[in-house]
Amino acid sequence: MVSVRAYAILIILGVCDSFNFDLNFVDLISVGSGEKYFGYSLLLQKGDVSRVIVGAPNSNSSYAVHNSIGVPGALYKCDIGTSSSCQQYVIESKGNTEVKSGDNRYNFKDLKDNGLMGAAVEGGDNVDDPLYVCSPRWKNDRSDRYGQHYLANGICYGMTTSSNVTADWERYMPLLNAGKQGYTLAKVVKYYYAMGQLGFAMHYVTRQRRLLLGAPGVLGWRGSIVQVAFQDTSNLQIQRRDTHQRHKRQLLYSFNVPNPVYISSLEEDNFYFGYSVSSGRFVRKYSDLWFIAGSPRAADLYGMVLLFEFPQYEDSDLIVHKKFIGEQFGSYFGGSVLGIATSDLGAQMGIFDLLVGAPTYTTDTWDEGCVYFYKNKGEGNLDSPRKIYGSKKPGARFGTAMSAIGDVNKDSFEDVAISAPYEEESGAVYIYLGGEHGLSKDYSQRILGKSIKSSVRGFGFAISRGVDTDNNFHNDIAVGAYKSGDVVIIRSRPVIKFLPQLLSMAKELMLNTSEVTVKYCMSYSSSSKNVKKVDVNVTLSKDTRAKDNSDSVRTIALEINQTFCDAVLIMIQEGIFDYTKPFTVEMSYALIDPELSEFCANCPVTNPSDNTFIQLNIPFASGCGSDNICRPSLSLNVTTQTNVSSLIIGQLSTIKFHVQIRNDGEPAYISQLFMAFPEDVEILLVSSKCELNDSRIYECLLSNVLQPNVSSELVFEFDIKRLNPKTENLTFNVTVQSRGEEVNPDDNAVLINIPLRVQNGVEISGISFPDSIIFVNENKEMIAQTVEFTQEYYLKNVGPSPMSGMNATFYFPVEIQNELFTNQIVFGVYEPDVIINNQAVTCKTDYHLGFYSDDGSNGESSELDQDNSREENRFRRSVDASQLSFPDVFDLPANRTILVNCKSDNVTCMKITCSSSEILAKNQPMVAKFKFRARVDVLIQITSERDIILFSSTAESILESKTTTYHIPTILIGSAKEPDISYWFYIGGVFVALVILCIIVLILYKLNFFNRPVREKLQNEADEDTECKELEVDSTMAEEENCMYNT
Question: Other C-beta atoms within 10 Å of 252: how many?
């Protein structure tokens, strides 16, 4: 066999939360294949040259004396840290032999073939301690009067020291008695010792010198536990025990093999009691051990575990203290058991907890495995179990093997290794740390077999106890991978604990403090005396209120039993801060791991559960009493610019709030005001101290500290022009808070709820394009078969509030009854173009022909271009227009004008309804364009007596029971025929005129208008006036001459 040693940095592929088991440097011992089951069982021993004892139960022996034995199994001694190969123990320097004694019951003939030598190995933790190995399928080839029998009793061997590989070992054969190979029970003969399989499991109690051997095949595989009690080894005797009379050293011992017939817990065959064994001290005041044994097929395959003591006599029941039944069928509950000390001193003077493996327990897939942890409350009272699952990998069989590995992190509590040998094909080992409350529910380290060697299989089927093989005061472990023939020795590094200190030179800070001095110190403790010096990175993180709040990093060299200290001056900013929170300085620290090329036994690591930082909190002097807890009494008062009890939407464009905050208690630090406002309003004016958060709430920092009996005021102005007319209330929520304990929180909030009302109206206007049409030429002929014109209506919201939608109804004359009382289609109405907010509005009509289109059809027929004489449409009306009013908007000659509107008796109208839910702001219109086509030939018939047609349409809108209407007229002008007038009409006219003239002359004559004296009198009066005016002129000229002469 070749020992393959690995001292190289390996790639760690599956390690999670690595702790102090160093996976970078491991010792790997390999035989190259899994045929021999090398690594099926393990024992780690320490000494000047530490070693691992390895069982290979499917191996042939390398000694010539064993050549005749087929695959007996083998046991190997492999020294750690040397280049030598592993050595096989001889155990017995002869092959299959026959031994006869004075008592025929104990005669036997070896049949060591396929005996599984090395299936179990146990012993002390030191190289000079006893060593034990079992071969559970060893058979006694016995012949008697009934014939030849192969009695698979099983055999175990013991040796006082593991150093001697060539010496013969002592045999332990408690099931050899020929008189107990069978047992008659209820008139049925059963195998008793015949298939006992002694040594299937083994547990060595070092301090009490007891060996516990599982024999699950006893009495029809009900099973039993064999106790081997050794005497003091200082009185070893020389006895002659073999046929060759050869002397060898023997151990004095006694056996106790309880009879399963008398064990009340074993009611049936095939319980496999003794499949796993362990022990522990479960009652503090007693020094006696309780033994633990698993029976994975008991209780209808739910499994069972017993905590018991051995009876004085074999044919007596066990003294059972506790009995546990598995919870899942077929989980193999009890497939492994372990008593684990609750503290580092538990094995000597403390008490034990219990672990029970159920490796085929199923959670989500299959055979993930589970371990039950029973916490000992004291005096043997165990809590309800807590389950541990590993990684819950399919087929992993977590809990196949468990081992007490000692206190690997030096926290005074025992730790455990639990394996899942089929996890991810290669297998895995989990490290669980003990603690004050028992085993941790989470593993501290996961070691995946293929991370060490890709071909490793069955990693963790066997795990040794923890032993310190390199004298660094921390235990190491050996892990077997029997399916690939590998054994891995994984060593642990020492654990140190940092002892940091962080101190302030000031007990508290004033609000105006500008600087503070902080002192920091660092030292460490170690359970290993060999860790003399370490390097550590120290980082100082300062409060955000420090002027320079960047981290300070430095490397410190620490020596054992020495403390390093230094101080730092921190400058504090000025500004608005929360002084109820202390000024914080944090020191974090991390061990610097040196770069290594081989395993370093004295290079420490830190426990991942230890703190990696320390924090210093320096309070500010708040002026809030000795408890430094401020109790302010804040109150709110909110007013608006006007007393707004209700609001008409659109009446105001803004609303302003004045918010006053007053403190009548102790100082209020970091007083904050919160203003929540509706979604359809926008802020116009707010203090620069306010910020809008993601919830549309303004957070306003009032001041660093609001002193007692002091008020603060904020102003908020909101834009309310865009309120939705469907909104019923306008709600603002104002709250105030501070860092202290508010005395009266009831007055810290104000809810402002303003009811909203809507007030608006509709104004309608319109125009016709063109406003008049002449549909004949000068020769009184039709211009065209049809003429077109357009009417546009404007329905406007006159406010002040927005309008949530517009509904309008339009009436248009389309048919006129002729002299024969037949309705004729005169006007065709196209589908209208109606727009609100640049959005098209859909309109509908109840007119039976629908809207007119350019393809010549109204709905399904071309009525406009045909003479409609169908009876079904003669008197059809689309609308009852009797209530409509049509004012005289034009001063048209009544004798020449025909009125065509929806109030006319001989007119059939078309009703069109247009509805929209679009919100219309104040003065925003609905624009409705209607295009018409009129039949000229019908119009000429209608105008046979009158040549003017006044076409009038109507728009109607109803809002809150108020109806608004408007009419658009369009004048259609044609030509009437001249009437035949007689000449006598003209002669009579001239005659009448002459008679009137004679009458006027006669009247003037009677008034003497034509008499001459009167005429002369009038002429004389006119001459006299002329003479007076000339005299006045002459007198004026004479006066002017006299004045000139005197001068």
Answer: 13
